[in-house]
Write a structure and sequence with these properties.
431 residues, TIM Barrel, alpha/beta, 9-stranded mixed β-sheet, globular
Length: 431
């Protein structure tokens, strides 16, 4: 299908265009500004009064956990994870996961996101739910294993490879391998996973230096920081995304920069679980590619990329007492082109320019609280509370139009999640 978006206020790589046209041919941005004379649109979107942005990229999340939202709150990190979330996660069925993913995609679309990088435990289901919704995603089967769980570790690797084979023809799905963390994988297993990434030609998606407990555990086991341990195992590389990175020291940051490793900053989740603040200005000063992630709705408890952008834009100004830290322009890049680079899609999405895929979002500039818009990037970062995307396209397909989901049965999703919620409500949580 050919789509013409006209009269948009667009955020382009070279700046803002207050009356922009974008021609989309078979999912690709064919032209920006001047529409080719031979272009014939099957569908025209009049975007007058709308802000056009690249689709945002959630560079770290766990969408199957969305149904666990608001169920394990105000708890220390280890109690939250091991005593509450993991036991609840183990009760989820594949059908539970399917509807939880669909709910997550609804929320992501409403915040203008068109792609997410996910770590999961439901091979087959995550891909199917994402394909059904028409969303772009980079999937990684969560991998844990070692000497005390050789059979389980081998099974998870098999499942990861089977997932890649099962969905190899789905153009909106790509894959990474996903070693969970330095404290859930031993050295031999991590080296095996690194070799697997080389064999398959894919990137690595993992958690790193999220908590003080992790720092202590890895230093006691291996005599080094988690970042140094990962480097020893071959995990740090240019196509690796490390989520969190709250507890990095200066030499850790220099190491990530030298390896070309990206960091997915999860501001809301890190604050809520009491783990602290990743030093984003220092990471950027070292030359690390920083992108944004929501983490799961079990820890955030939101999947809104707009909310994440707002928090990141404000937090580092306050913690560094520097009003220029993490500027709106820098944070916008984190949510778009930096995210695309991190997840291995920098040549396909993340900006509005010819040759890239049409992953785009439109926002109503007359929305109360957003209007008057002034500087568009600043508006998205500082005055987006309550803002919802009007229309969202992924690969040139309209997934959300004037606030209506076009590929997801929203009422069915809510019905299924309500059933799951009632079942979970019958279980005691340890607080």
């Amino acid at each position: 299908m050919n789509i013409l978006i006209k009269n948009a206020c667009a955020i382009l790589p070279e700046g803002y265009d207050n009356c922009c046209a974008v021609a989309i041919r078979n999912g690709e941005i064919a032209a920006v500004g001047t529409v080719p004379a031979d272009f014939r649109a099957d569908k025209t979107i009049d975007a007058k009064g709308k802000l056009l942005t690249p689709g945002f990229i959630d560079a770290h999340t766990h969408v199957h956990m969305t149904a666990l939202r608001n169920r394990a709150d105000d708890l220390p990190f280890t109690a939250w994870l091991f005593e509450n979330v993991m036991p609840m996660e183990d009760t989820l069925t594949t059908q539970d996961a399917y509807w939880s993913v669909q709910l997550a995609i609804m929320e992501l679309l409403m915040s203008g996101a068109t792609c997410f990088l996910d770590m999961h435990m439901f091979p087959g289901t995550l891909g199917r739910a994402t394909v059904d919704a028409g969303m772009r995603a980079v999937l990684s089967r969560g991998l844990t294993g070692g000497a005390d769980d050789r059979e389980g570790g081998a099974r998870r690797i098999r499942e990861a490879k089977q997932d890649m084979e099962r969905f190899k023809d789905e153009k909106l799905l790509t894959f990474m391998v996903g070693p969970h963390a330095a404290y859930t994988c031993d050295e031999a297993y991590l080296k095996e996973v690194a070799a697997l990434a080389d064999e398959l030609g894919v990137g690595i998606h993992t958690h790193l230096s999220e908590s003080e407990d992790e720092q202590k555990t890895i230093r006691e086991r291996y005599g080094c920081t988690p970042a140094e341990f990962y480097d020893r195992c071959g995990i740090l590389r240019k196509n690796t995304v490390c989520a969190h990175c709250v507890q990095l020291n200066d030499s850790d940051m220099a190491l990530l920069a030298a390896r070309g490793t990206s960091v997915a900053h999860n501001a809301a989740s890190n604050m809520k679980l009491g783990n602290g603040f990743a030093d984003v200005p220092a990471l950027m000063a070292h030359g690390v590619n920083v992108c944004l992630g929501t983490d799961s709705a079990a820890s955030n408890n939101s999947l809104s990329m707009l909310r994440e952008m707002e928090l990141v834009s404000l937090i580092h100004k306050g913690t560094h007492r520097n009003a220029t830290a993490a500027s709106a322009s820098e944070v916008f890049d984190m949510a778009t082109k930096n995210g695309a680079k991190a997840v291995g899609l920098g040549d396909r999405v993340g900006e509005i320019k010819p040759g890239l895929r049409a992953d785009l979002a439109l926002f109503d500039m007359s929305s109360v609280g957003f209007f008057p818009i002034g500087d568009p990037k600043a508006a998205l970062c500082y005055s987006s509370a309550g803002l919802r995307a009007d229309t969202v396209l992924a690969d040139g397909r309209v997934l959300l139009e004037h606030g209506e989901f076009k590929t997801i049965d929203a009422e069915r999703v809510k019905f299924e999640i309500e059933k799951l919620d009632k079942r979970l409500s019958g279980k005691d949580l340890k607080k």
